[in-house]
């Protein structure tokens, strides 16, 4: 072989078999690195390095990145006649794609799949990879090609449903998931039902999930979703029925949902019983619920014992929950700090809020600010910047910087209603009344219950700034009197002239709340 002058496939095959039989992965990769060094120093025999190069490229145990490096080095020094056939095989590329995909490294999976000589048979895989990367236009392009060139199954239509949802084409998604169901991809029943829930088409959602009860593979999920659908409709009896059915079908995690249903309906003993069953099933979240419930019942020490069982958990979400319990329910501040820090260390970025609030409550404003800045520096997460801006507003510090932060973030991301409420509050703080009111007026025309606290805070801020007429007009124009009655009556106490006698019509049941609002405004 050493003195061969012509390319001989049999020789390469023999050498590959020899190398793979006698060398470990580490040995092989060391040999490849030696060959690359040999190529770079110019002391080599053309036939030998050519033969070795072909053999190493055919070895399964050598990483693809090292093979690419070998090809690059070879092409720099060897004649074109010897390197034009040097390439990584499609089977090697597909193996690498599979490895990266299994690790959820979709960027590298895409990089290597696009190096294939023929993409015809992998369009559906490419569609899936692009979908995982949230590159929906690309995903749809390859999915369309897959339909034209490949044998399509139910999964492919389910994937198209997900792509259409990503493109905000709800009707298209419904069509694709329905097609997937026709081809017996029953998981699509769950996805179709979710679309109906998010569209507030609850009857269609129920109908869809009830069909899912007929299929063993998804009956637990179907029952689970039905339980929550009836919970949304405040039908406790049916919610309980379907959550229990989901548990019966094997979804033990639904025990947490059932326990929370009992909690919401003040059935504490039933909730404890269910959470204890969840504990027996190995669901660590139940420790949090039981600690809280026993503390509420006045059994402080018993509650603490439940936390002790999970204090060393490496689950970042659980550590955040422990920190919140220590802070809000057990008032053990140093323990709370320790677990907020541990949650952060484990990767739960949102733990910075709890830790920052602890610093703020303790008057350690500089520590809180430093924490928020450090978290942003480490994550580059715009939501952390928004929180920093709100921190400045709450602490009446750096109002121009707070406005600059919010307006910079607004240039790069779409604001939700909560973001807009913060923006309007900071504009008001910076005496930009007209801009602030314009944003708030849009919010008030269509808001949800979760925005109510921010809206109330906005009206209190208006009154603190003595913009009584502006507050009055916003309330009347958006028909909010019955929605925020205590705020309205507090406003009336400050009004001179226009309907100021309305304050006298306030019922006794509202006096305490209204007086607290007035006191807050007067202590501006």
Secondary structure class reads mainly alpha
Percent helix range = over 70%
Number of helices: 31
Classify the beta-strand content into a percent band. under 5%
* Gyration radius, rounded: 32 Å
- What gross morphology would you assign? globular
Oligomer: single chain
Largest sheet: none
Unreliable stretches (pLDDT < 50, length at least 5) are 1-7
Number of strands: 0
Q: Span from first to last CA?
A: 91 Å
What average pLDDT do the residues reach? 87
Task: Tell me briefly what this model is.
By secondary structure, the protein is an all-alpha fold. 73% of the residues lie in helices and 0% in strands.
Structure notes:
This protein is mainly α and 524 residues long. It has helices spanning 9-22, 25-41, 46-58, 64-77, 80-83, 90-102, 106-113, 123-132, 136-149, 154-166, 170-182, 187-198, 202-212, 219-232, 236-248, 254-264, 268-280, 285-296, 300-308, 316-329, 333-345, 351-361, 365-379, 382-394, 399-412, 417-429, 433-445, 452-464, 468-477, 485-494, 508-522. Helix 2 packs parallel to helix 4 and helix 25 packs antiparallel against helix 26 (417-429). The N and C termini lie far apart (91 Å). Residues 1-7 have low confidence and may be disordered.
